[in-house]
Structure formats: C-alpha cells, structure tokens
Amino acid sequence: MTIVRRSELGMPRLAAIASESVATILSLQNESGAYPASPTFSAYEGYSWFRDGSFIADAMSAYGEIESADRFHDWCSEILLSRREQIAAIVEASQAGNPVASSRMLSTRFTFSGDEGSDDWWDFQLDGYGTWLWAVCEHSRRRAVPLDRWYPAIELATDYLLSSWDRPCFDWWEEREDEVHVSTLGCIAAGLAGVVADLDGQRQTRVVTVLSEIDMLIRTRGVANGHLSKWLGSTDVDASLVALISPLGAIPVDDVLTAGTIAAVDRQLNVGGGVHRYLLDTFFGGGQWPLLSCMLGLAFAATGDRSRALDQLRWAASTVTEGGQLPEQVDDHLLFPERQQEWIDRWGTVATPLLWSHAMFVRLAVELGVER
Ligand code: BGC
C-alpha cells in the first residue's frame, strides 16, 4: 500500500524515517541482543536470523548505535561458542571426506535465547555466517571496537565456512537447497575477506586459498550474459546479487560484473524503484521489496550515481505505513497476483514491520548523508 506521493519525500522526511527506523529497531531488540525478524508475523515470530540480523547490526553501527550492534554480535558469538563441539564435528567430518548431513549443519535462525526452536524451517543456509563475519569486522573497523571480544567466535565461524563453503544449501530466500548460490558465495567471500588480516598464519593461508577459489568459481560458473547469476550454472539474475557490490564489497566497484549486474537487476527486476527478488518469485504473489530497493540504491551509490540511489530511497520511503512501519514487500506490482492469497491464508498478511527493511533504509540513508 503506497500512501505517500514520492514528490512529498524531501530530505527532512527521509531523515525522519531513518531516525524512526532506528528507534523501531532499538525498541524491538531483545534483551539478549537478538533482533527479531518481525515481531508479529506468524512464521517469523520469536526468531532472529543471522542474515537479517547482521545487516541490521551493520545499519545500526553505521548510524552510530554502537552498543546495539555490539549486543547483537555478542548474541551471535554466544551461539557459536556454545556450538563449539558441533562445529568441530562438522569440520572433522568434512576433512575426512565424509561431510555431515545438512540437518546437522548450523541453523539459519535461532530463538532469542539462542536455541534452534521447535518449528521446522529451511535451515541449512551458509550465507548468514559469512555476513556475520563481514558485519562484525566492519563494525570493529568503523567504530574502533576491538575484535578480541568476538575473536573466539570469529575463529569458529571461519573454520565452519572453510570446511563447507562449497556445499549446496538454501539461498537468501530459503529456496533451492540443491544449488550453490552466487549470493551465498559472495556473503562467504565478504566475511572471509573481512577477517583474513586478523587470523593466525595457518587459517590465514587457507582463507586466502578459499577466497581465490570462490572468485574463480563465481567468474567461471556464476556469470551469465555479463551479470552475476542466481546460482552456479543458472542464467537468471536475483536482486540479492547487488548486495555483493555494496554493502558487502565482494565484487569491486570497477569490476565489469558490477555494471553488468546492476544493469540486469535494474532492467529485469526494478519497476519504478520497487525491486522484485527474481522473475519467477511467487511468495505473496511476488511483490516488490523495500530492502532490495535500498540494496540497489547502495549499489548505485557505490558507482557514484547518487541520483538513482536517492530515487531508490524515495521509493522505499513511499512504502512506509501510516503507523510508520516498513513491510517485507508491497503488492503494487505483483509478478503472480494469483499466488498472493495462498500465502495470506497460510501465514497472514505480509510481515510488517520487517526490521531488515528498516535497516536497509537506514543504511542507504547514511550512505547518502540524509539520515539526520
Ligand atoms: C526471507 C528471508 C528472511 C526471512 C526473515 C524470509 O521470507 O526469504 O530472506 O531472512 O524471511 O526475514
């Protein structure tokens, strides 16, 4: 539901949305440090994702909410430390050439108290652990917070990813478990690149090798028609891929793949500023995601196109509800309108607020200097 005309969205209004978004995130952050994905949406209630949370922590850090980001990283760190034995078993089995089943890998989301919870989920996803490494290292550098506080958990996450980075798993959208997704590889690369300088000699050598293997794999099998592709061997594009340009920085801005990927996402998935996840998306009818609009905005900003970046921010601002909340998606332009109702029947109306949407709005506002 778009309730604001974009021409009404001047800088003060954009800044107010950013500051209200930060207040929303702070008010909903659990005392454990976990960021709920969405406080009221039936399927997400009670859980925090490594993926969403890491992007949220990055936005909070960028905005200056240092303690909030610290607390989320503490929560992640505790989850990893308390699974030291599980991680050791995963690493050992992988080294022995007999990897554990997906069901024994780390979960993608946890309850606020740090348990797996009892609801079934599409749980084996590697990207969140890479994104967490990236976010905690960015936070440490940006805010001069010593990494020591999280270092033992950083080593565990690094070992986990080194052992399993090339396994097929569910993607950002918790789909296609049988594929190796390019966004997932990019998140892992961003995390490993973020941490490499701080590792001991042996780990560092292995990380350098894996980073070049990921780069080679993406460039040989993860590219189609000049853009990054959805998974290895696919010719489709997916909007999550623009995050590899910015904020993750896994693909350099001057790389030919940057221009090609932005152009493909912009041409195929961006409708008036609202970005679809991918062309065959049927989730809630396949609407437009404010968080992806902001990610495309960040990619535009990285290439110096401030005007297009601001357009993206304005579109995201136009999706704020009367109550000041940003949804997961809006249904102004659906790819498969006939598939919307089945999801409403299953899970209720679209997740609102979605903290990740608020976070990406904040992150882009900060990037454009319009956050205050
Ligand atoms: C999305 C995930 C997200 C989760 C929680 C799912 O519908 O596909 O990317 O992590 O919601 O927000």
Describe what you observe in this structure.
Helix content is 50%, strand content 4%. The protein has 372 residues and is mainly alpha-helical. The strands form 3 sheets. It has a two-stranded antiparallel ribbon with strand order 1-2. α2 packs parallel to α13 (355-368) and α10 packs parallel to α13. It is globular, with a radius of gyration of 19 Å. The two termini are 26 Å apart. The mean pLDDT is 97. The site of beta-D-glucopyranose has 10 residues, from α2.
Name the descriptors.
single chain, 372 residues, two-stranded antiparallel ribbon, 13 helices, binds beta-D-glucopyranose
Mind sketching the topology for me?
Blueprint: H1 11-28, E1 47-49, H2 50-63, H3 66-81, H4 84-95, E2 109-111, H5 127-143, H6 151-164, H7 182-195, H8 201-221, E3 223-224, E4 227-228, H9 256-269, E5 270-271, E6 274-275, H10 290-302, H11 306-317, H12 340-347, H13 355-368
The chain binds beta-D-glucopyranose.
Residues 37, 44, 49, 51-52, 172-174, 354, 356 line the site of beta-D-glucopyranose (BGC).
Concise structural overview:
The chain has 372 residues and is mainly α.
Q: If you average the pLDDT, what whole number results?
A: 97
Low-confidence stretches: none
The major sheet is characterized as: 2 strands, antiparallel
**First and last CA, distance:** 26 Å
Order of helices and strands: HEHHHEHHHHEEHEEHHHH
**Beta fraction:** under 5%
User: How many runs of DSSP E, i.e. beta strands?
Assistant: 6
Shape: globular
Oligomeric composition of the shown chains: single chain
Alpha-beta content class: mainly alpha
